[in-house]
Specification:
Number of helices: 9
Distance between the termini: 11 Å
Structural class: alpha/beta
Helix content: 25-40%
Largest sheet: 7 strands, parallel
Oligomer: single chain
Bound molecules: tricarbonodiimidic diamide
Strand content: 15-25%
Order of helices and strands: EEEHHHHEHEEEHEHEEHEH
Number of strands: 11
Shape: globular
Length: about 220
């Protein structure tokens, strides 16, 4: 076990039982013209997470530990898209409609895919999820159990939506989650702060919050 500085207290890192779970670093959320911008958001708020994620991913791969990626999106026939999700926001353009990077949040379209800076390599499972949480309607839990994983370092976007939902789902399934704050991003600065506070408050009610620098230092030990 290696102690990683974190809040509310040090995280006992157990590398063989730990996986890096990168949430939804997709072009639809991070690049102009995608779902995020369609919802009225400033995508530049998320782009500061790319470089810290790139460094953490490189160190994690160099240590030979498990990496998983998720993508939020739907079948091309939209059969798995709840009508409530499709019409939410009353936008003129919605999920499944054509956008600048293909159909919005549809599997197989350019905008749905992971940004080139963090693109998965062979052997890294990619979890396609229809919801905000990565455990809902996916095989993530089975894949982690089969590999003996009990700890997750969770990064990606957005802090208060898919990252928080996934950390909460993971917590209820018995995983210890560490969130490096520089590797998660929100379109809203106040939600970034509160999204992290909600994880680490009450003695770490959902998990721990740390930094990528301290995780990378532990990986090098
Ligand atoms: N809108 C928003 O903040 N997030 C999402 O819709 N999905 C994810 O967080 N991935």
């Amino acid at each position: 076990m290696i102690d990683i500085a974190a809040e509310p207290y040090a995280f006992s890192f157990d590398p063989p039982r730990a996986a890096l779970l990168i949430i939804d670093m997709q072009r639809d959320f991070l690049e102009p013209g995608g779902f995020g911008e369609m919802l009225g958001n400033d995508v530049s708020q998320l782009r500061r997470t790319i470089e810290p994620n790139r460094r953490l991913l490189a160190a994690w791969r160099a240590a030979g530990l498990m990496v998983l990626h998720t993508r939020e999106g739907h079948r091309p026939d939209l059969a798995d898209l709840p009508p409530a999700k499709k019409i939410r926001g009353r936008s003129a353009t919605c999920i499944g409609d054509p956008g600048p990077m293909g159909r919005i949040l549809v599997r197989g379209e350019a905008g749905h895919d992971i940004i080139p800076e963090l693109y998965p390599v062979a052997g890294e499972p990619v979890i396609d999820k229809p919801g905000k949480g990565a455990f809902f309607a996916t095989d993530l839990h089975a894949i982690l159990q089969n590999r003996g994983i009990s700890q997750l370092v969770v990064t990606g976007v957005t802090t208060e939506v898919c990252v928080n939902t996934t950390v909460r789902e993971a917590n209820d399934r018995g995983y210890n989650c560490l969130v490096p704050e520089d590797c998660v991003g929100s379109y809203f600065p106040e939600f970034q702060a509160m999204g992290l506070n909600m994880i680490k408050a009450q003695g770490g009610i959902f998990g721990w919050v740390g930094t990528s620098k301290d995780v990378i230092a532990a990986l090098k030990q």
